[in-house]
Amino acid sequence: MSYRRLALAASVGVAALALSGCAAPRAQVGAAPLEGAQEPAPAGAGLDEFFRKYDAAQLSLSPEAKAYRGIRDEDYGRWDDVSDEAAVARDKLLQASAAAMRSSFDPAALDAKDALSFELFNAQAERSARLFPFRDYSYIFNQMSGAQSQMPAFLINIHRVSDFEDALAYIERIKGMGSLLDALSAQSAERAARGIQPPQWVYGYVIADIRNLTTSDPARRAPNAVLADFAAKVAKLDIDADARAQLVSDAQAAWQDHAYPAYRRLLAEMERQQAEAPSEDGVWRLPDGAAYYQALLASYTTTDMTAQQIHDLGLSEVARIHKAMQAIMAKVGFKGRLAQFFDHLRTSPQYYHTTRTAYLAEVDAHVKAVEARLPAFFNTLPKAPLQVKAVEAFREESAGKAFYQSPSPDGTRPGTYYVNLYDLKDMSKTELEALVYHEGIPGHHLQRAVQTELEGLPPFRRFGNFTAYTEGWGLYAEELAKDMGFYTDPYSDFGRLGMELWRACRLVVDTGIHDKRWSREQAIAYLKANTPNPDGDIEKAIERYIVYPGQATAYTIGKLKIMELRTRAEAALGDRFDIRVFHDVVLQSGPVPLDILERRVNGWIAAEKE
């Protein structure tokens, strides 16, 4: 997965997050002043300069986006401004910039690269305008990307400490957590009063995250995650012992005086909301919820498909994949029905690792093997390294099973494949290979690192996101790995189909929950009946789809389009088809809506046939 955004979302700037619909803009008090960012004026030097000015303007509104980019300046100790005024300012910047672009540049007079940038920026502004009326519909505190866990995760994974000043900035961010948590808690309470809050079961996860951060547990050897991270980073600085000790002491005081009390206040608010939270799961229950969901579907899939059309596509794909699974079941000699084989895989210990070390060792072996095969299938390879990292203990109970974080453009932070090893019984060996190919290579790491490293593209394209493209590529990469010679074990190949089935089922359950008013329990029952996944995996997945409405529908829709275009190119070009060039056509544009991707591939096919 990429949550973010959802999480998934963490690797792009604030403007791109708003455009993708992944989350409401995060903001905090003490951030850079909004009045400092002005509309970027049309630049006589051309469209590239125009986009550079826009990028500088939107970065000036987001200290966090700067940190993701590896930029450390006077804002390095600040958080974003989460007020509605800040959200309005960001939207005005985007819409005014798009209007200025349209009035100042003629797309017919631009070269191909700039014409595509013009079209993409305009499309993003239109998407944002459609979603902006629903900017306060996301759940600020949830089990996937809630602020209660994302702020510590940001400090641990994004805030670098390379010198004394960076350490001071870290302490300032710890102090700022207090006022930020209070502001977000107040916003959450205001939304709940209007009927915009997650279902009751979500609060248990949020409360657990808060308690993990406010209670050290000697039995688990789990000190406060933020303070432990700070101490470890400071220990590597080339400063004297007294200065190091003073920094650690100051960080502890900042936590105790600012962050800790705010977390305790947030805990009380979450417990208050939990007592009156709704039992219904879908966004259909929100004010104008049907329009909200349709806007999300359009944004995530970059299509005009209705919820019913997506639901029907899911049912069709589930039936197709079940048939392919039955063939593998016969190949391995299992006697019985597919549902019985699912139960066998779900409950038999031989399909699960017993230690985290063993799981990670197998991941490492697959990463090394696929790296060696990349040049036969790709002309363009990522420069940034890939690291595999277990999800941190303070959030592993609530976080998703796997996700990816893009590298920083300055080369100081690698791409990271996070794998959640909280419960190894939820992480089947049969799916391990496919997860590596999706989150790592040739999936998210290859695509997003290449995107970040593209030269000559404006920043909004290098750091932006279209979910159907990005997650469609990740799912496509799972099947591509079979063409590359992997999944030699039939059970791993079955796991590949299981992952594809998982995404097809998402079309059914996401629309079931948010359009057809299915309950959490109904959706869980559907996955149990139609997939081989463990019960814990199923429950966590359904809970993800509930708090990320629409996002999960993008995977299959994007993958099917990429496969359709590749099949079309193979048929049209015959012996002249070069899969490496096809992949360049897909990747060298950066993320694009699916209709633009189709146009690009069709243009390449036509040029190759001349």
- Strand composition percent: under 5%
Largest sheet, strands/sense/barrel? 3 strands, mixed
Q: What are the segments in which pLDDT stays under 50 over at least 5 consecutive residues? A: 1-38, 217-221
Secondary structural class: mainly alpha
> Looking at the structure, what is the overall shape?
globular
Pfam families: DUF885 (PF05960)
Keywords: Signal
InterPro entries: DUF885
Signal peptide: 1-23
Summarize the model shown.
With 610 residues, the chain is mainly alpha-helical.
Outline the structure in words.
The chain is mainly alpha-helical and 610 residues long. Among the domains are: 25-134, no CATH class; 150-280, no CATH class. Helices cover 61% and strands 3% of the residues. The chain has 24 helices and four strands. The protein has helices spanning 14-20, 47-59, 63-69, 84-104, 112-131, 147-157, 164-193, 200-214, 225-234, 241-276, 289-301, 307-331, 338-347, 356-373, 429-439, 444-453, 459-462, 467-483, 490-514, 520-530, 535-547, 554-573, 579-587, 594-609, and strands at 3-6, 386-390, 402-405, 415-419. It has a three-stranded mixed beta sheet with strand order 2-4-3, covered by helices on one side. Helix 6 (147-157) packs parallel to helix 9. The protein is globular and about 65 Å long. InterPro entries: DUF885.
